[in-house]
Fold this sequence. Notes:
The protein is an alpha/beta fold and about 290 residues long.
Amino acid sequence: MDINWIKTFCISAETLNFRKTSELLHMSQPNVTVHIRKLEESLGVALFTRKQNRVHLTPEGLLFYKNSKVLLDNFTHTVQSVQALAQGFRKKWTLAISPLLAETILPSLVRQFLNDHPDVEFQIRVEESTDIEKLVESGEVDFGLSAMPPTNRKLVVHTLFSEDVVFVRSIDSYDEESGPPLDAEEILTSETLFTHHHPVIWEDLTIRLRHAVPGIRAIKVSQASITKRLVQDGLGVSFLPHSIVRRELLEGRLVTIPFPLFDLPKVSTYAVVQEEGELEQAFLKAIQNRYFG
Length: 293
């Protein structure tokens, strides 16, 4: 029995379409059919039936699919482990980090961690904060860096740092020394506001903004890095964590707008692990030794 037959079968079981399977696997449709036929002959059972020109799994096919997924996952993990060992790695360690944090704190952390742990196969997954807790819970990742506080009390959680949210716009030709004072209310009514790029603050902040300044024109943007680029290009304004725009403020590409209408929220960054092993403690220490605000 060829492992490639099983791979072809699993994709076919998920798509229930041999043509789509052939496209996903970059092989001809007749080859897909050959793989399925050889697998069925090897097992001595039919895995698929055809009804009204549609492919369906037989009960035996459904059972084989469920077990084959586990087999393929174990096979892939084994191959990766052997390859990692051959390359000098002794352990695989996976970090899940939100796009918001990947924009700011990731590069310097990776540099130090790789230098301090050359025998670790370090993997990075950029995931939404809403998903990171579940990835840590399931053991898919070893360490989570999230912009959301986890709810599972069985997880070990550290609040790494908190920072201000600032109101920013493009510098354009504005002169901070000689130009007129920037008026937050006037800017909010005259420029587009980019919202919802942080998973925590926007529900409450949107309500307060619309109550304080009726007539705001808002556009939802899911990624903070995209929001920053849009603001920097002069397409609108937004409220962003200070760490996201610190460099642009220092380099004069963005300017903060005084905001007297109400107190802006603070945002926090959280480290999430199942348990604190040696590598988790080392990575946590590397973060705590840096200031990212």
